[in-house]
Amino acid sequence: MKSIFITATDTEVGKTTIASGIISGLINQASTNLTVAGFKPIAAGCDLIDGQLKNEDALSLMQVSNAQFSYQKVNPFALKSAIAPHIAAQQEGANINIEQLDWHYHQWQQTALDYLIVEGAGGWQLPLNESEYLSEWVVKQNMPIVLVVGLKLGCINHALLTAMVVAKMGGNIIGWIANHVDPNMQCQTENVKALAHRLNMPCLGTVPYLANSQNVEEFIDIQLLKSLIA
Ligand SMILES: Nc1ncnc2c1ncn2[C@@H]1O[C@H](COP(=O)(O)OP(=O)(O)OP(=O)(O)O)[C@@H](O)[C@H]1O
Ligand SMILES: C[C@H](N)[C@H](N)CCCCCC(=O)O
Ligand SMILES: [Mg+2]
């Protein structure tokens, strides 16, 4: 099983949208027959559905996947409040740590699957508890990382800082995706050019502002993405 970790310049800038696009793109690739699933280890902001806390990101990833797994496997840490997960965990009596993330990831590694698309929460440096970060787990597990840049004013700084810190931590960003989340952003082309020039990594796609995010996969170079994962 190959994994890809989806991080972003911020919360709410397209991780689920792009992760879903990558899952669909891998599944729909001509003359391949790949089994692909999504994993949203930590989700803050859940509703009680059939007596279980469920998050819409995890449900979206489950919907586009072509293999069925239990909700609990796809989203082991489901927190009710839509706030920073480590604060929600504290309030809700949950304990999130790297050891437990390792355990859940190990279960996926025992599963018959070609690709596991792992969606982060928030941006890169997301606290798990008082001393650990989600980023440390990603680096420990040596997952190839895709950086989603949500195009809005300020994203150049966020993208460059993220790329710098990932590299400093020993993480492996294989590429970035420009995601147009603000239809009114000025100088969009110039911003994408400025990012491409400074982010020293392949651009795996430029996703336009889409009224419905059904055909995101068309804008992602799935072949290039696959070629960058060992
Ligand atoms: N290319 C796009 N065109 C139009 N709307 C988009 C695009 N990408 C994302 N969005 C919208 O922006 C919002 C945030 O996107 P998304 O949920 O994918 O972000 P996220 O990074 O996964 O957020 P979170 O940090 O909560 O997990 C959603 O309403 C989504 O539909
Ligand atoms: C609730 C929200 N949609 C995300 N799932 C969590 C975002 C956490 C951000 C934490 C932070 O960096 O301040
Ligand atoms: Mg999301």
UniProtKB/TrEMBL annotation:
EC number: 6.3.3.3
Functional pathway: Cofactor biosynthesis; biotin biosynthesis; biotin from 7,8-diaminononanoate: step 1/2
Any one Pfam family match given in the protein's UniProt record, by short name: AAA_26
Key words of the record: ATP-binding, Biotin biosynthesis, Cytoplasm, Ligase, Magnesium, Metal-binding, Nucleotide-binding
Reactions catalysed: (7R,8S)-7,8-diammoniononanoate + CO2 + ATP = (4R,5S)-dethiobiotin + ADP + phosphate + 3 H(+)
Residues the record marks as active site: 40
Function: Catalyzes a mechanistically unusual reaction, the ATP-dependent insertion of CO2 between the N7 and N8 nitrogen atoms of 7,8-diaminopelargonic acid (DAPA, also called 7,8-diammoniononanoate) to form a ureido ring.
Protein name: ATP-dependent dethiobiotin synthetase BioD
Organism this protein belongs to: Catenovulum adriaticum
Gene: bioD
